[in-house]
Structures are given as C-alpha cells and as structure tokens.
Amino acid sequence: MAIGDYPKEYNPAVHGPYDPARYYGKPDTPFGQLKLNEIGSWFARRNKTPSAFMGACSRAWWRWQHKYVQPKRVGIAPFFQLLVGSMTFFYIINYGKIKHHRNYKYH
C-alpha cells in the first residue's frame, strides 16, 4: 500500500464509502475481552510492520477527529486535550533541565 492508496482489504461494493477511522482487515478479539493465557497469541497475530503501526496511528487520529473536532457542535474538549498533551510533551523533553531546579530541604 502506497501513500494515498486505500487498504488492500477495502472493497467499495461491500464496505460502502471509505472511512479512514475504520479497520478493514479481518476482525479479531478485542484486547479487553482476552483472558490472560491468550495475550501472547493475540500479540503474535498482530501485524508489526511500520506501515501497520502508521495505519493504527492514522485510524486513532481520525477517530479522535470524528469524535471531538468535526462534530457539528464542537465543545472546548479538543483544545484542552491539545493543551494538556503539549504541556506533557514539553515537560518530558525539558525534564533534564527542570530537575536541577528542585528545592531540597537539606543541602
């Protein structure tokens, strides 16, 4: 699958209009419904290629877009989610500089 192509599992006659937030592959047991002894075989069935990872990230992005950003009446939630996410990201990348400014009671 190249950039801009539909997934190979997508069939317009069967699935109808393309939805980027939907997985068109063979359905599998959701992770929340697994028993502890099935987790290893569930991970073994996953497609671990970089394109599969990017496809999962793309589907997550579009699901977030459809739920929070693109509804007819958008609330303030996506703005706060981006704000908290960016604050967390910049805290993590600057933690090495911030940790030297701690105030200890005993020197």
Automatic annotation (TrEMBL):
Pfam families noted in UniProt: WRW
UniProt keyword terms in alphabetical order: ATP synthesis, CF(0), Hydrogen ion transport, Ion transport, Membrane, Mitochondrion, Transmembrane, Transmembrane helix, Transport
Source taxon at top rank: Eukaryota
Gene Ontology biological-process annotations: proton motive force-driven mitochondrial ATP synthesis
TM annotation in the entry: 74-93
Subcellular location: Mitochondrion membrane
InterPro entries: F1F0-ATPsyn_F_prd
GO terms of molecular function: proton-transporting ATP synthase activity, rotational mechanism
GO cellular component: mitochondrial membrane; proton-transporting ATP synthase complex
Family: Belongs to the ATPase F chain family.
Protein name: Mitochondrial ATP synthase F chain
Organism: Euphydryas editha (Edith's checkerspot)
